[in-house]
Design brief:
Elements (H helix, E strand, L loop, with lengths): L7 E5 L2 E2 L2 E2 L2 H13 L5 E8 L3 H9 L4 E6 L8 H15 L3 E5 L2 H14 L3 E5 L1 E4 L5 E7 L4 E6 L5 E5 L16 E4 L27 E5 L9 H10 L3 E4 L1 H5 L20 E5 L5 H7 L4 E6 L12 E4 L2 H16 L9
Helix pairs in contact: 3-4, 5-8
Amino acid sequence: MTVSDKREILIFAEQRRGKVHPVAFELLGKAIELSGNRDLTVSAVLLGKGVRGEAQELIYYGAKKVYLFDDPSFYNYDPFLYKANLVALARKINPYAILFGSTHIGRSLAPRVAADLQTGLTADCTDLSIDEDGTFIQTRPAFTGNILAHIKTKTTPSMSTVRYKVMQRASRNENRVGVVVNMTPLSSDPSWKVIFEHIIEGIDLADAEVIVSGGRGLKRQEDFKMLEELAKLLGGVVGSSRPLVDEGWIGKEHQVGFSGNTVKPKLYIACGISGSPQHLAGMRDSEVIIAINLDPSAPIFRYADIGIIGDIYEVVPRFIEILRSVLGSSVLGSDL
C-alpha cells in the first residue's frame, strides 16, 4: 500500500459521557506528523450525543475534517452500532489508515471493524511511521516487551490501536479551520440498553502526575495503605505491578505495565518492584523515577533517576515523616 492509494488518515475520536478521550489528541499529533509534506488529510470520526462542541475541539487540535455522528443512540458505547457506522464510513472514504486508542473501547471496537473490512490490525502500537515508498509501518513491543516488532500491513486500510501516553499530544490552536461533516447514522436502535452504570471515582492512573507503585516487596495487602499515605501527601495515586493485581490485593485499574496502564507521570516511585520488562514497558518514560529495593542488582535501578537500596518498610515511612513535617500533619489528619 502506498500513500497515493488512500488520501486520509482517519482518527477514531473516542468519547465518554460527551467528552473526547485525550488519546484522540495524541492520535491527531501523530497523524499530523505522518502527513507532513505528503498528500494526506488528517480526519477524525466522532460518534456521540450532543458532541458538536467536541467536534470543533478536534479541529482546534489539527483535524481538517470531522465526520460527526450526533445521535442519542451513540451516548453509550455499543460495539455493534459503532462498528456498523464506522465500517460504512470507511467503505465510503477508503482511508489510508484508521487509528484507535488502546483503551477498553478501542481494543473492543477496532478488531470488529477490521474483521468487517477484511484488513489487518496491529494492536498496542508505540510508534507509527511511513516508509519512503509510502508503506505504513507500525511498531509495537513483542515477546512481553523484550523486542520491538516493525509491522507492515499488506491489506487496506492499515489499522492500529495506539497506546495512551506514548505519542506527543497535538497542540491546540483556535485559529485552525476545518470542516464538520454531518453523518446520518445507519440505525438509531442500539443492540442493548444500559440499566445501571457504576463509575469508579478517584482513579485516573494514566493522567496522574505522581504515582507510588508497589510490587512483590510488599508483604501484606494492607501494606498498600502505607503507599496510599505517601501518594496522598504527594498529590498522587497508587499503582501496582501485575503480580499483586493477580493476587487480588488491588484492582486492575491500578496496574502499570505491558498488560495494564502505560503511564508517563512527572514522578514515579517504585516500591519493592524489581523491574520486569512487562512493568518497565508501562512506566520507563516517566520524567523522574525513584526506585526503592533491597536488591542492588534489580533491573529497575538501570532506569531510575534516583535509586535507594533499602527496605521499603524503613524508607517509605521515613519519606512520609519528612513530608508531614514539611507540609503539616493536618494534610492527612491521621497517623500511620
